[in-house]
What we know:
Blueprint: H1 7-10, H2 15-23, H3 30-41, E1 47-48, E2 63-65, E3 70-75, H4 93-116, E4 120-125, H5 130-153
Parallel strand pairs: 3-4
Antiparallel strand pairs: 1-2, 2-3
Helix pairs in contact: 3-5
Amino acid sequence: MPLSSDPAATRPPTPGRSRNMAAIKRRDTQPERAIRSLLHAAGKRYRVDVRLQLEGARPRPDIVFTRARVAVFVDGCFWHCCPEHGRQPSVNGGYWGPKLERNVARDRAADEALRAAGWTVVRVWEHEAPEEAKERIIAVLDATTSASRDARTG
């Protein structure tokens, strides 16, 4: 069943397009590696690309701090519709529009499922400076760890 009534949206991809799509990484992108490197240098230890089993969802954060229950997603501006840099492709819009909308809906569902399970979610855009992203993540980790410690001693 086609996703769109637009005939251009249902045509098979060209070999060049297939090659381009196959080359797109799901993990270990340059922004992820830069942020992970800075976090590691700051003494923060984490797991990478862990699929979490939650009620009604199976999110796969890019960086996971299991003990602190913090999940970090490094979102690409195109794939996750960045309000600053995201754009709709001019070619094959009948395919890309719904595809990108589903990505955003999946992001929101993952956020909700993680929060419902007691996780803190941090979303970083690929255009953010890695140093700023690292500082934001560490601030969340510190706040989460502090709140957890206060709850235990409280």
